[in-house]
Amino acid sequence: MENFGIEPLKSLDTFGVAGVLGRRGEILYFPIFENRSVGRVSDLLIAQLKPTDLDQFLLRDLFNQSLQLAFSTQSNSGPLEEPIAFECGVDLEKVVFSFSFRLGSELSVQWDGLADRVFKGLIQTSFERSLSRIHSASHRMVFKYAPEFQLAELMVFIGLPGRISSEVLHKRMPFDLIFLEAVTGKKYTAEEKYTQLGDFNHSKILEKTKRNNTSPPKRPQLKVANINSWKWVQWLKNQIRGVHEPEGSSLGKMSDVEISSDRQELLKQIESKSNKILELEAETVFLKSERIKSPGSIDRESSSADFAVLKVQQQKLVKMLEELKTRNSELQAELLSRTKRGH
Amino acid sequence: MEFREKKIPYSRRQSFKKVTLKTVQPHVILFAPAYVLMKKDQSYVGVKGPLDFFTPEDLNRLSGYEFLHFSRFIFSIELVRDAAGAVQNLLKRGDIVTHLAHAPVFRDAALGASDAELSSQVLRVLTQLWFNHPEEGVQTEGFFVSAFVDELLGGLSPTILTMIHAFGADFLERVLVLSSLAVFMMIHLGYLNLAYLNRLRIAAIFALLDEAQNRTRPLLREKSGSMVGFGVEAEQVFQFICTRFEGLAGERIRARAIATDTDSVTKKFSSRLPEILNGLKDRKSGNLSIFGEDGFA
Question: Taking a C-beta distance cutoff of 8 angstroms, is the pair B275, B260 a contact?
Fold first, then answer.
């Protein structure tokens, strides 16, 4: 098989782009389960490939067409049972997209003469039509298939102008179809640098306007806590003190001095738990407000992760508070019955 | 699995969490040693180790006791459970779509985080399971990975647990740790579909059962026997896990050791280490370990 540019293609008998990258190769990777956020994935990808000066519409087109082909072999629209492993390799002279996926058993492919038909445009099925379109739009296309595992890999090469001779770029290259016996194979020396697409600061990359103020946001005080929660805690405390008992209640009004030791203990517990819950709510409100006000000012990913942890902790505290509330009702009932007995 | 203190004097009763025996479910993996209180001896006696489970017969035998007592180590697991709960919340969150009254064809949508963004958020939560050893670098222990995966994906079925346990408690420990490690590593690579991860865990368990029964190399297979269904990287990850780790609860999972391999999946794993280190910088909680004063091993 012919090389593409000066750098030799190290290996085509394994899955992944590492085998076709030259010196200083870098690889972006990400598994794709569904088409829900594919648009944003491609936005991030194109943003990362901007320094290559490649036609962004071409890159998007090749990404979408290849992904559509990989999806259509398994599912029409819903989430995939088995993800598509996407890799984008870049070296000094080319960009390579790789989509590894399973060829659904219901897909019938006529392997004999496939490469020739796709190259000549003598297509017979929608699968071949998709391959032919991608082949036409790219500078080189390789399709690998491991029949035992039903796993396939579509590799799409785009040469960097000025790095690869225009003769190679404009020459219609044959479509390479390679059959593999194994899925895992050779290991390469640790040259390629991998980066997961999720590890980029998305808000920074996708944000169009630069913010002038880059200083970290001030932490809020407790006063921003949810007022309803605060009111509820006060109400609960008053219930225990008996301050808001209705007129004619047998308990009447009591000062703190008159509160039984049981109730005092309960008040202390509520005090400590409620402070914690208010703190958490303050944090939650802060994170929410920061996300709404200035999406670029804090790290979105970290705040969402913190938010998820806080949510779980908060649910626990709410549960504890509910338990205390129940205990309070029990104590009140007991006190009421004692008072009645006293009368 | 084995645990350090089989008998603890009653004077240390503050160290226990009491659970009514009636509420204890059979076939649920335990993540802390379980004790009963022997009133005659004034001591707590260990009845079940971590990474093991009670059978209905076990519970029947203990029916004379009102409570089971778990060592305070169980509180360390709370952190792991919180992390698993947080990851679940993140993964279950989708787009919020509402219909517009004036334009019923179109819908108003609040788009959730993209899968790439989710991956970053999940990684940040996962840092709670890692800690940075001053000499050995980023690491965790197999035990906590098992606890995390069990909480994230839910308990295994009684049938599967019984099948594994037939090969002994040590094998149960090995299966739980290795299958969980495979899932854990795939999450780090960005595989964030709970149904997929669950299928992968079951396939890894059956592969290890296969290995024990037939002395063959463990390979991921679907129930049908087909090897398809997990993608290119799952098998690579699983093979790596099986050859590199023994599957012991106390085994240190050192990120640096994983990173020395040149396989593409290990290189992908290594690519996430800077983010993990970044997350560890502002961590307030202590390091998780089953060893030491707070541990049980």
Answer: no
